[in-house]
Design a protein that fits this description.
about 350 residues
Length: about 350
């Protein structure tokens, strides 16, 4: 009987077939997985290149100084301004070539922007707004401020004064409702945008008054027997009367002494404020005109401030010198005054100084 022995190749043919089939299946699955992954990655990349989905709404977006571009991408995605953060978002940011040009500041964006659109806003410098300097010296009255506004900003003085009269502004705490704004337009040098109108300028000066005087001891007004508004009235007279700092608390002391004793203040600056012949000089007729600002004829305070006082005069009005003086006269070349207790002493000072 003849027997046959299987060839070597034949001996291994049967076991290799399923092993090869399995390998092909694994390869197919891996390739299919890679294909699916690539398709999904491609779609995600395309989605990140586009705009975030959803309705558009404004977003106030702040970039702090020194923050990284990666953090900006993360924050933009968190606000739904752009669709993606992470690796793809940062990859796209680097692809803009402008990640080093992002500016610090607060920007107005919207939801649903592309990264390129957001970067356009974040890297564009703001437009320069033309401005002008407005100088308001201490001691200016509203009409003088109106002239300065017209000269510096081109807003007609008449228009400025008409808007002042409306009184429709956020008022400092010391300014009662319905009272004139005289005395409350803070003296300062301002940089004002040329686009601002009269209302904006007035509000800026009133706000500056509130900010500059917020730390003053206004509660002392009650101890002095006056209101905060009357403090400003007194300060405005000090501003017009005093030329050197050492005189301010002394003049304040004289004013309070006369108010306490019912004496007329006799301050010519109040007469000049309401001068019927506004030539800067006081005639006999001006002095004899009985008006609310004639502090030679009337006792008490004038009805309003007569100018815008600065801090030094407000401080003097709130902290007057404890002094026996009732009189003072301009004396010397430095603008200082000589003070007296009695009228006879005052007359002697007048003879010596004038």
């Amino acid at each position: 009987m003849q027997t046959t022995t299987p060839r070597r190749a034949d001996r291994h043919a049967q076991p290799d077939r399923p092993r090869r089939t399995t390998s092909l299946l694994i390869l197919f699955v891996v390739l299919a997985g890679l294909t699916v992954g690539l398709v999904m990655a491609s779609r995600h990349y395309e989605r990140c290149q586009g705009a975030a989905e959803g309705p558009k709404r404004p977003v106030s977006f702040t970039v702090d100084d020194g923050v990284t571009a990666e953090r900006v991408v993360e924050d933009l995605a968190a606000e739904r301004v752009i669709p993606c953060s992470g690796f793809i978002g940062n990859l796209l940011m680097r692809g803009t070539g402008r990640s080093d040009e992002i500016r610090a500041g607060t920007f107005t964006l919207t939801t649903g922007m592309t990264l390129d659109e957001a970067v356009d806003v974040l890297t564009t410098p703001p437009k320069q707004i033309p401005t002008a300097d407005l100088l308001v010296p201490p001691g200016y009255r509203v009409s003088q401020i109106a002239d300065a506004v017209e000269e510096s900003l081109g807003i007609p003085a008449d228009e400025f004064l008409a808007r002042v009269e409306t009184g429709r502004f956020d008022r400092p705490a010391a300014l009662p409702a319905g009272a004139s704004l005289e005395g409350f337009l803070w003296p300062e040098t301002y940089r004002i945008p040329m686009r601002d109108d009269a209302d904006a300028v007035i509000q800026r000066l009133l706000t500056q008054f509130s900010e500059e005087t917020s730390s003053l001891p206004w509660e002392r007004a009650q101890d002095l027997g006056v209101t905060p508004y009357e403090i400003v009235v007194i300060a405005s007279m000090i501003e017009k009367e005093a030329a050197v700092q050492r005189d301010r608390p002394l003049i304040a002391g004289v004013i309070y002494n006369r108010l306490r004793d019912g004496m007329a203040l006799g301050i010519d600056a109040t007469l000049l404020y309401d001068d019927p012949t506004p030539d800067g000089e006081l005639s006999t007729a001006d002095i004899e005109t009985d008006g609310p600002y004639n502090t030679r004829m009337r006792t008490g305070l004038p009805p309003t401030p007569i100018a815008s006082p600065y801090l030094w005069s407000l401080r003097a009005a709130l902290n007057p010198a404890d002094t026996p003086y009732y009189y003072y006269v301009l004396c010397g070349d430095d603008g200082g005054h000589r003070f007296a207790v009695t009228y006879d002493e005052h007359l002697a000072n007048v003879d010596a100084c004038l």
